[in-house]
Write a structure and sequence with these properties.
- This protein has helices at residues 3-12, 15-25, 46-53, 62-65, 72-77, 86-122, 128-156, 162-171, 188-194.
- By secondary structure, the protein is mostly helical.
Length: 198
């Protein structure tokens, strides 16, 4: 990694993180990883494996979710609160079903790749070429899985109104309710109409 990129990352990561890591590395207390050595795949918990197996989001779509691009699963959970039409529900359900099916397939590939990487270390230290290949395969599998979830968010966006997206953000706790108060200088009726408060 180039020096300027390393410097930029160090600015972004709080000093407290470095202090905590330093303390952990020089502590005589047990590792935070203690107990994880019994996992089937050391890098994945049982909860992780369950989430991946059912095609769950596993936090992979946060780039979309937290930047105002809702996903199908939570939209369907909030269908009544954001007043999804029957047509919207049907379309979003189709996206969700396809996402889940694709995520299960991609997730299986990712788990197999992680299992192979884990096995390589169980059998001793892998060679450099083997390690590079195994890491690349696991990384690519994870990227495909992430793309499945992010793409589903993109597909839902054109189906929604601005008011529904705003209401979704409020219900998910990402923003304040624009209907709770009208800012100074705005016509109350126009403000409420524009923000879907009526």
């Amino acid at each position: 990694m180039e020096t300027k990129h390393v410097a930029m990352l160090m600015v972004l990561i709080p000093t407290a993180v470095f202090a905590q890591t330093h303390d952990e590395n020089h502590s005589t207390s047990p590792s935070a990883y203690a107990g994880e050595e019994t996992r089937l795949i050391k890098s994945l918990s049982e909860k992780d494996l369950e989430e991946i197996a059912r095609g769950g989001g596993w936090g992979l779509a946060r780039a979309a979710e937290l930047n105002g691009v809702p996903g199908p699963t939570h939209l369907l959970e909030l269908a009544e609160e954001i007043a999804l039409t029957e047509q919207q529900r049907d379309n979003i359900e189709a996206i969700r079903a396809q996402m889940q099916a694709d995520a299960i397939t991609a997730g299986e590939r990712f788990v197999v790749a992680e299992l192979a990487l884990d096995a390589a270390f169980q059998n001793g230290a892998p060679g450099t070429e083997a390690l590079e290949r195994l890491v690349a395969e696991a990384g690519q599998a994870r990227a495909v899985l992430r793309l499945v979830h992010l793409n589903a968010h993109l597909l839902t966006l054109p189906l929604l109104t601005d008011a529904q997206i705003s209401q979704y953000a409020v219900l998910r706790g990402y923003s304040d309710d624009p209907c709770a108060s009208v800012p100074d200088g705005h016509d109350p009726d126009m403000w409420r109409s524009h923000n879907g408060c009526n």
